[in-house]
UniProtKB/TrEMBL annotation:
It catalyses: a 3'-end 2',3'-cyclophospho-ribonucleotide-RNA + H2O = a 3'-end 2'-phospho-ribonucleotide-RNA + H(+). A motif (HXTX 2) lies at residues 170-173. The gene is thpR. Hydrolyzes RNA 2',3'-cyclic phosphodiester to an RNA 2'-phosphomonoester. It comes from Streptomyces sp. gb1(2016). InterPro entries: Cyclic_Pdiesterase, RNA_CPDase. Keywords: Hydrolase. The active site is at H87, H170. This is RNA 2',3'-cyclic phosphodiesterase.
Amino acid sequence: MPPPRTVGGGIHGVRAGPCRSPRTRSVGRPPACCTKSCVNEQTQPATVRVFIALAPPDHAKEELARELRAAQGAYPRMRWNRIEDWHITLAFLGELPVGTVPLLHGPLAALAADHRPPRLALRGSGVFDDRVLWSGIEGDVEELHLLAADVRSAVKACGVTFEERPLRPHLTLARARRGDLTSAAEIAEGFAGFSGLRWPAGRLHLVGSNAGRSRGPIHYRDIEAWPLG
């Protein structure tokens, strides 16, 4: 607006078998189920925040990153997104039960194979709600909208309900801190004329997010990714 491959062990993490009490136990020794695997099972989140997206290739992101370096130095209090997290959201699904996520894999893989990669470019800048800095998208925008519509239909056909938001293709780059209503607009004005080279969006990404789970930075990771076309 607002990446089959598995990263970091996948969405499921470590799955351990049932804990069994030992036949004998020495005084002071922890129970057998106080092992790392059992703790991981007990603390495994029941839900995961999920969205479906495209991602610019590294060379396109680096092109924009060079344009932003001066602003990053001049506005250090902005919450700048990591370059590896830049993405174009097609459908935000919100919190899903962990067991529901695998149901999406087959339909999304088939859908990706049926769509040619749209050719896109990063262009210009803008602000949402005075605080969110973004870069715009140009190129095969009509194809991008068709892909997003098919993605949303495939998700609903899997029985997954989510809030449908209008598609406004963009990359979210940074957020101003609460109460700062001027920095994002000043930065956007500085690279409003940016126009990047075109590139094919080669893969469809099913992404997990840690947003809302801690006070630390928001990070994203691919649950799965499938080639387009």
